[in-house]
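Just curious: can you write a single protein's sequence together with how it folds?
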Amino acid sequence: MEATFQILLILLAVLAGTAVLARRVDIAPAILLMVAGIGLAFVPGMPPLELPPQVVLLLVLPPLIYSASVAMSWREFRHNLRPIILLAVGCVIFTAGAVAAVSHYVIGLPWDVGFLLGAIVAPPDAVAPLAIARRLGIPRRILVVLEGEGLANDATALILYRFATVAIATGMFSLPKALGMFGGIVIGEVLYGAFVGWASLRLRHYAREPRAEITLSLITPYLAYWVPEHLGGSGVIAAVACGLYMSWNGPLWISSATRLQGIFFWDLVIYLIEGLLFLLTGFQMRSLFEKSKAFPLQEILVAIALVTAIVIIARFVWVYPATYLPRVFSRSLRERDPSPPWRWVFILSFAGVRGAVSLAAALALPFALDDGSPFPHRDLILFVAFGVIFITLVGLGLSLPIVVRWLGVADAARGEHVAEHGAEIAARREALEAALKSLDAITEQREISDEVVKVLRARHEIRASQLPDSLDPDAHDVSAEGTELTRELIAAERKFVHVLLRDGKITDESRRRIERDLDLEEASLANREYRETPL
């Protein structure tokens, strides 16, 4: 127990140190974390750490998918549903089939084993490409499609994975039955996930206690995921549906106190889960290296190179026709949604990074079939899965910033960000005007003292005055100067409060209440500074 706790402390220290290093060298943390995990695995005296597949599939995956779904805009998800489905379903099935064909005709694997390998390596990761893409300032729609694909493609891959393992174990496969089950799983999980979201929101609204509500929010993704998974589904679709329901309806049901505390809580939880996941993924290199001694090295390297090339090429082969052909055959689609620039499609095709779900699915393969015979080619599948993850994460992950700069995609995103910032300022100003109109209506219906009305009106006028009148650089400079000066005044106020506490003029409880107000004001400054950063 003590050794396990020491290893956990080492992993947390490496996680924090790698995050700082990644920020300094401007490399995605996921890449450095995986490399650090590989390095740690071969440190003398470091015990081997096997990544239990059920830990990823049942404990780690639900909160990751749920939190990403809550952060996702339901309106944008619905608006981009066609390209998301084409990628999350069509591209995954196409890639799995391409890998199966190459594995059968070139590597010599049976069809069912090749299709199983394809199902494992077909889905791009939901975490790593987004973490990289967000730092590059690429157009919003590319991010939305990548995010939506990452939420749904694991469901398609895990369902294919189940079908393939059953086919290998029983030697039987029925395409009509599989299609029927696939449709039933999708519809059933969407309905169940929405129900869990509905029930969770009402329970949290009834609780009205931030700690209880946050505890319920932590239970929600597991409730949405575990039940369908136990019944033979994937659980992923239910978790996504639940998260999207919460994203759309949560703002009207969740209190401000819960929201403030919950954002911090979930940010920390996801930060730790994602970081430890990539570290432990790198750790698997040690056990795989030991097992590789039983295989010819050339055979492993050829298989990894072939499958990696296929998953990268298959995505390009699928994405370009899936983007342009529907517009060729549909005039209404062409008028409603014109074709995007080829550079956008290239970025979408290039961001096919594989991740920990592929490794977990490979590790979850049984060691033996029902009749006691060894599961066919299990170790080779593990080697190939890890190789594809490593090459795509490091290779594509490090190349993506270069490709984005080369194509000039970020230039198009700057205009989007400016327009979005302008719309946000307008929305804030209109919301304040609506609040003042509501105050006028309330004063006509109730007897409210003039002093209260003056205070409330002054508060809204001060908030309105803090909004910039335009987006030009001069207005930004004035606003930034005011923000920095306000931060200095808050620091002076905080120091004076500490002097009062030291002199015994206020209690610790009073100091904490004053500090909380100052912290909230300083946090609002940081948020305003983030919004006003020139692009």
The radius of gyration is 26 Å. The chain is about 80% helix and 0% strand. Residues 476-535 form one domain. Confidence is low (pLDDT under 50) at residues 530-535.
